[in-house]
Design brief:
Shape of chain A: elongated
Shape of chain B: elongated
Largest sheet of chain A: 4 strands, antiparallel
Largest interface: A-B, 30 and 19 residues
Strand content of chain A: 35-45%
Mean pLDDT of chain B: 75
Number of helices of chain B: 13
Largest sheet of chain B: none
Mean pLDDT of chain A: 88
Strand order of the largest sheet of chain A: 1-28-27-26
Helix content of chain B: over 70%
Oligomer: heterodimer
Radius of gyration of chain B: 73 Å
Structural class of chain A: alpha+beta
Number of strands of chain A: 55
Structural class of chain B: mainly alpha
Number of helices of chain A: 13
Strand content of chain B: under 5%
Low-confidence stretches of chain B: 117-129, 331-399, 415-425
Order of helices and strands of chain B: HHHHHHHHHHHHH
Number of strands of chain B: 0
Distance between the termini of chain B: 133 Å
């Protein structure tokens, strides 16, 4: 991936260009020391001179467009060297001028992401906030010396500014504490905070650029360039950032390693602005030129298909299986593309083209108004986030199925990390409350439930195979702990691992891969947690991955291949055993004999453990017995044998549910089947006297049996007094227990079970 | 002290190629050294021949330095500098420096734009009307050429010193295209190398196959030889039977020889013992004889002197007795002698007879021994009869002795047989 840099042969500005900014409608404004403001179109052609200001300007910023209020966004702000700033409309009328906002020059300006407030900083070291209309709101901070840069946090609740060599994150609420750290060895000149991935990039006079997380922890530090870094800017989608220096323009991945480096002859890059679709930049340069960079040579791949954007308007598709090559031409520039399963979705500036990978000739075309920032594909439909309609679900014919929505959803903050998508479910981390995950139905767009975690969630993913009852959601929280939970029924969080760097579900089966502690971990059958969680450690495959680094990302996990992008940007592949997948196929088809044969052939304890769990899931006791025997789990083997000998189906099912740690369901099954005595006995076995009594009372059976066992228990403990008042009361009511009668009753129950079980077995 | 001016100054200095990075914070506190350095550098950029005193150790020196710079610039560039601001060397100094820097920057920008202009203008300039101007220009240009030539020479001379820095600079600043070109070249070279390697590999393969064929050939040869060897081992040579038979015979002969040798040794030992005994007896007899002769002489003398009466009868008895004793004493040596004579004549030839006797038993079986002995005994008897007649009267006793000898021979034989058994012959 790299920039295709273009520049007009003759400069429009005579002096140093100090600020550039793209509007939501992809118009560019540039301001220079010749006091002129020029308007450019998206192709990089100058349109008109908007205004000639009376003072030197230092920076220019459009008001960010807000969904539904697009026409308001025709106003921009310029900061001036005399300490004032001006709000100017697109037509060139000065809407408002705020004189002496700072003493000395205004060095930088930043609109909050919702466009409701403006932050300014100046040579005097003040950081101030202003309303949308230019009214003074508050003095946010006071620093030593010049503040060179200011930017807002993702939620616009905090503000980041530089103070000499330090970066400071200051919350808007004065009560909270501000964070300050030494970011560079020389003054910090520029910083940017991305709202999607919540990372900060900064550049300074020590000629380095660095990437930080929102807590000020360093994620990356570049090697020094030749000149000081004068501009950094995140792409709005948070996947790349651009770095500018004297005669240098770099494109870097969000983890810091650089995709490409250009050396335009234009002096220092003072400001870099990205278009909303993250495909083009404009840069203000010291020579008076405004240079444009178009992202080209982007690549995506899926299974056997490789896509590459050769030019702004063309895509080439290579099928590596039969070496066929296809060139796709578009009228507009391609802004986004995604390929998965059998479909390719290409987003251009005004259209969405949906191709089937078997037919490259006739795409389904949908007209588009906003800018698409995210595409997620499931098997039957895909989700798309654009700036006008927000999140929407479309089928592959281009028909919109729904527009999932909940209050406080911020479509612009959605990324592949905080949205998980599958055919029957859409999970989104609530931006307002990051401990909550909202579950939505992609077909109707209605919310079907929420999941609540104890701390903030950073990354979620949904398993891709099976129906919704087998759908599992994994989440990585702020502490980088990996949890798994089912999405239906009650929420059951189970912590799979700690300090996880990245995760990904397999596209074609239910295995889960993660990188943690320098190891590549693959959970072949995460379902094992709900079957027999003692087996969990033995169903994990671990491969050393020490040299991959901390900011590693799994970019594809399909069949047996894991593709990983290391911290330094290199893509490496690892492979995992294919047997668990085959085994799972057998087990879901209830072909237990081939499954057993496979395990015997492979002779791996890992596979046997998987089979044991799958057999328990499939209620196949014989296979479970064999599998437990193979991994030397004698206790469980014996229990399986015990279950096999139970007379009734309900009893067997209940015992299996007990084995899976689902007592409530087990009792329910028994009571529904009419085996109250067995249900009561189940409670008594684990000394849950009160529950046993409650059940007996509601069923009006076997109250005396419960009391009898209770008294026997108390006698064993050394003739203690009854401590449970309910039981004491019941004992008083019933009086003396007739042991023989109770015994007879129990025997009768057992006989009934045997009889029924025999009858069922016969039929 | 303006943000914008500092920023622009920084940018201009970078564009002009000032070797140091200037920080935006550099002029926050007065920094005269930097001001001086920048000023000097800018002046040199403006006019290389500008003469400036760069002595700034004392306050006075600094003032003089600034003054000289300002004067020079005023004269040459028509730039008026505010010395006070410069001396303060803070943000306001930047404004002064910027005057000079922006002048240079302007020139720099124009120079960039120039090539297009000159392309258009030069053809128009050349014409007959401009000859005079041309002459002047040519002169100054020619002087320039020599000047620049000398400078270039000097610079080339200093190239070796700056080589390292240049290399570092070159190493630092590379662009993708050249890199790619290099890479392509490298790839090409590697490919060639790979082809070469392939060729050598093929050669090696060939060698290997040759060697393998050779090995194979040798192996088959070895196998054939081994087979032949085995077949030869199984065939029994024609002379083997005879050889074995002869060998058995030889061993039998040898054992016989050893036995005979032992017998012989034993017998010789016996002979030595007997000889010694006989020697002793002879000596004894001689002694008795001498003693008797002496006694007889003394007797004779006494008789002659008449000192003693001659007892004739006693004398006769004595004589008779002594004769008897002498005959007995002589008889045994005589027998021994006859035996020795039988073997080889006199006692003096003992060694020679020994050798003869040593060779003889080789051709004798142990069973024949007795007969031999007997034969030799008969020979002895014959010889005896030829020998000294003095002993004839004692023949009977001699026979006894012979019997004794034979008996002792038999005993010897028995002992030998025992020995053979014991010694596992």
């Amino acid at each position: 991936m790299k920039f295709k840099v273009t520049q007009l042969p003759a400069n429009k500005h005579a002096e140093v260009v100090t600020g550039v900014s793209w509007s939501a409608g992809n118009d560019l404004l540039s301001v220079a020391d010749d006091k002129k403001v020029w308007l450019w179109n998206v192709e990089g052609e100058p349109q008109a001179q908007v205004i000639e200001t009376d003072t030197f300007c230092t920076e220019l910023r459009w008001i960010p467009s807000i969904q539904g209020r697009a026409k308001d966004a025709d106003v921009f702000v310029v900061g001036c060297t005399d300490g004032s700033f001006k709000l100017i409309s697109k037509t060139g009328r000065v809407e408002k001028a705020v004189p002496s906002a700072h003493s000395g020059a205004v060095t930088s300006l930043a609109w909050s992401h919702d466009g409701s407030s403006l932050a300014t900083c100046g040579e005097d070291g003040h950081v101030k906030s202003w309303s949308r209309n230019g009214f003074f709101r508050a003095n946010l901070a006071q620093a030593e010396g010049t503040v060179h840069t200011v930017c807002w946090s993702a939620e616009s609740e905090q503000i980041l500014f530089s103070s000499g060599k330090h970066l400071v994150i200051s919350p808007l609420q004065p009560s909270s504490k501000q964070v300050m750290w030494k970011a560079h060895d020389a003054p910090v000149l520029k910083a940017d905070w991305n709202k999607v991935n919540n990372l900060i990039v900064s550049g300074g006079e020590d000629c380095k650029y660095r990437v930080w997380d929102a807590y000020g922890r360093q994620l990356y530090s570049s090697s020094p360039a030749e000149y000081s870094i004068s501009a950094v800017a995140w792409a709005p989608n948070g996947r790349h950032f651009a770095v500018g220096s004297f005669n240098m323009l770099r494109l870097c991945d969000k983890t810091g390693w650089s995709h490409s480096r250009d050396q335009p002859e234009c002096g220092s890059l003072f400001d870099i602005a990205w278009t909303a679709d993250s495909t083009q930049i404009a840069a203000a340069t010291g020579s008076g030129a405004v240079i444009f960079g178009q992202l080209v040579q982007r690549e995506v791949s899926c299974a056997h298909l490789e896509l590459r954007q050769e030019e702004a308007h063309t895509l080439s598709v290579v099928n590596v299986l039969d070496e066929t090559h296809e060139d796709l031409q578009f009228k507009e520039r391609v802004t986004e593309m995604s390929v998965s399963g059998g479909h390719l979705v290409v987003v251009t500036a005004t259209q969405v083209c949906i191709y089937s990978t078997t037919n490259w000739n006739t795409p389904h075309i949908v007209e588009l108004r906003g800018t698409v920032s995210l595409i997620l594909q499931a098997k039957r439909h895909f989700a798309m986030v654009d700036t006008i309609n927000g999140l929407q679900v479309l089928n592959f014919d281009g028909r919109m199925l729904s527009q999932p929505k909940f209050s406080a959803m911020r479509p612009d903050a959605l990324s592949s990390f905080n949205v998980a998508y599958s055919d029957d479910l859409l999970a989104i981390i609530d931006v307002a409350d990051q401990k909550t995950i909202r579950l939505l139905d992609p077909l109707t767009g209605k919310q079907v439930g929420t999941l609540q975690h104890s701390i903030e969630v950073e990354h979620i993913a949904l398993s891709q195979v099976g129906d919704i009852s087998r759908r599992r959601l994994v989440l990585v929280d702020k502490n980088r702990d990996l949890h798994i939970t089912p999405v239906q029924g009650t929420q059951e969080m189970y912590k799979l691992h700690i300090m996880v760097d990245t995760i990904r579900w397999n596209d074609s089966n239910n295995s889960l891969a993660a990188v943690a502690d320098g190891m590549l971990l693959v959970w072949f059958y995460p379902e094992v947690i709900y079957m027999d969680r003692d087996l969990l450690p033995s169903t994990i495959s671990k491969q050393p991955a020490f040299e991959w680094g901390k900011t590693v990302e799994i970019i594809e996990f399909r069949d047996t291949r894991v593709q990983v992008r290391r911290s330094d940007g290199a893509i490496v592949s690892a492979s995992v055993s294919p047997y668990p997948t085959i085994l799972e196929k057998f087990c879901t088809a209830a072909q237990w004999e081939p499954a057993l044969r496979l395990c015997r052939y492979v002779k791996s304890p890992q596979l046997w453990a998987c089979l044991a769990a799958m057999a328990v899931a499939g209620k196949e006791l014989h296979t479970a017995e064999v599998a437990y025997a193979a991994i030397d789990q004698v206790d469980k083997l014996l229990y399986m044998c015990h279950i096999k000998e139970l007379p009734t189906i309900e009893a067997r099912e209940a015992e299996l549910l007990l084995f899976r740690r689902r007592q409530a369901e087990a009792v329910q099954v028994l009571v529904q089947g009419g085996w109250v005595y067995r249900a009561i006995k189940l409670f008594i076995r684990v000394f849950q006297w009160e529950k046993a009594f409650e059940l007996a009372r509601t069923q009006q059976q076997h109250i005396d049996t419960v009391l009898y066992y209770r008294q026997k228990h108390l006698a064993q403990l050394g003739n203690r007094e009854e401590t449970i008042p309910k039981l004491a009361q019941a004992a008083q009511q019933i009086g003396q227990l007739n042991e023989a009668a109770i015994r007879a009753k129990i025997d009768a129950e057992k006989a009934r079970e045997r009889e029924r079980g025999g009858a069922r077995a016969a039929s | 002290m303006s943000y914008r001016e500092l920023r622009n100054f920084k940018e201009i200095m970078a564009t002009l190629g000032y070797p140091r990075l200037i920080s935006i914070e550099n002029f926050k506190v007065p920094n005269f050294d930097l001001v001086k350095e920048v000023l000097l550098w800018l002046c040199k950029r403006y006019d290389k021949n500008m003469e400036i005193l760069d002595e700034t150790r004392t306050v006075q020196d600094r003032v003089v330095f600034l003054k000289s710079v300002a004067e020079e610039l005023l004269v040459k560039a028509r730039i008026k500098l505010n010395l006070k601001n410069l001396y303060a060397s803070n943000g306001f100094a930047v404004r002064e420096l910027l005057k000079l820097a922006s002048l240079l920057h302007e020139a720099h920008r124009n120079a960039k734009a120039d090539p297009d202009d000159t392309d258009d203008t030069t053809p128009a300039d050349i014409g007959p009307g401009h000859k005079f101007a041309d002459l002047k220009l040519t002169r100054s240009l020619s002087s320039d050429i020599t000047k620049y030539g000398a400078h270039l020479d000097k610079l080339l001379g200093s190239h070796s010193d700056t080589k390292e820095a240049a290399a570092r600079a070159l190493g630092k600043n590379f662009d993708i295209d050249t890199l790619q070109k290099h890479l392509h070249r490298e790839v090409e070279a590697i490919r060639e190398q790979a082809e070469q390697m392939d060729a050598t590999l093929q050669n090696v393969e060939q060698d290997k196959s040759n060697l393998e064929a050779k090995i194979e050939k040798k192996k088959t040869e070895l196998e054939r030889s081994e087979k032949r060897f085995q077949s030869l081992q199984t065939v029994r040579p024609a002379f083997m039977d005879e050889y074995e038979r002869l060998e058995a015979e030889l061993s039998a002969q040898y054992s016989l020889y050893v036995q005979s040798w032992r017998n012989l040794s034993y017998l010789e030992n016996e002979l030595d013992v007997i000889n010694a005994l006989e020697q002793e007896k002879i000596a004894e007899n001689d002694r008795q004889l001498k003693h008797m002769q002496k006694r007889l002489r003394e007797e004779e003398l006494r008789i002659l002197r008449g000192q003693a009466k001659v007892d004739e009868k006693a004398l006769d008895d004595a004589l008779l007795e002594s004769n008897m004793a002498g005959a007995r004493a002589i008889k045994r040596p005589g027998a021994a002698n006859s035996r020795r004579d039988g073997r080889g004549g006199s006692a003096g030839d003992f060694d020679g007879s020994d050798l003869q006797g040593g060779a003889m038993p080789m051709r004798e079986d142990s069973g024949d021994e007795g007969e031999e002995e007997e034969e030799s005994g008969e020979e002895d008897e014959e010889e005896d009869s030829d020998g000294q007649g003095a002993f004839n009267q004692d023949e009977g006793e001699e026979d006894d002795d012979l019997d004794d000898l034979e008996a002792s021979d038999d005993e010897l034989e028995d002992g030998e047989e025992d020995d053979i058994d014991d010694g596992n012959f």
